[in-house]
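Q: Structure tokens for this one, please.
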Amino acid sequence: MQYVAGKCNIGKSNRLKRLVLGTAFIFSAFAIYYIVESNGLDKTFLLMLFPVFSIGFLCVLEAKGSFCVMNGLNGTYNLDKGEVEINSFSDLFMDLIDIIILGLVQGITEWIPISSKTQDTLVYLSFLHGNPDFVIPILLFLHIGTVVAAAVYFRKEIIGLISEFLKNPKDLKAHAGSKLGFLFTALMFTGIVGIPLLLIEKKFLPDLNASLLFVVMGLGLLLTGVLLLLQKGSNARQKENANWKDGILTGLLQGLSVLPGVSRSGTSATGLIWRGFDSESSFYLSFLLSIPTVILAELLLYLGGNLSAFPIADGLMLAVSSFIFGYLTLGALLKVVRNINLAYVAFALGLIVIAAGLIGAS
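A: Here is the predicted structure, written as tokens:
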């Protein structure tokens, strides 16, 4: 195909791929609308329609039009590497399958006590054989999806906290004794531990073996299980009692999550359990804390990563995928922790993480 400036020279196979992806996303938008309306679900679910339908519409435009919608933002127009014959359905759908797999991995691992960034990277490089140069952009877009999922899920809580602050912004004593104080202190101590640790790890320990960290994390999970077994339901603290003192230990432990393989949700939930909160309140506060924490971490990723070469369309689809799976698993996990004894889950995860560390060290 002859290159023409301003035209979307992507070839027949890529046009067909965009047409299929676009049609799938548009149908998904209508499916979401039907599910929400027919089941009387919260109308906030309809917020998912905008990004899903928009991505589908833009993909169809790229397929049918003679211009680049997404890649044009990067100044990239001539994407045609010659006409490629499609021999199987896997050639056509591999991009969509990759996006779904990565979204599913991020949507699940963001909320459980294993490192989501480690699992995302492992799946992308080892299983999907991806480009190492795209790891940071992929992590950025995947985490955007789950942080939006958390913000939508906790929207009433967030609105309540903002309203509480605006009513009397100068009453610092009252705010310190509430969830606002917990969130602020946890963020501050996360930065105090995390930023220097990140700089040290990048400068002096670039090839840090994560095996020892896995063993330490596993021992921490075993200790968490013991504390949960010793915890008496009537004496356990509830999420409404969180204050600035709880944020100190939570932030100190969460700061360790900058290290390879260390889980943010695992460290923060462990800190809260050690502070005497019941398992449901610990996970609830940990997930709520993830919103400002991940937003700040995303800024560091954005400043430290080369995003200009990564296709915006793929990034948006990754964000939508992780948003959908993240929202569903977040709600499901909070329901699960109400009905099971998490002590035994902590024991199981602890033994698995220790085993992974010992195998990696051997």
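A few notes: The chain has 14 helices and no strands. Confidence is low (pLDDT under 50) at residues 72-77, 81-94.
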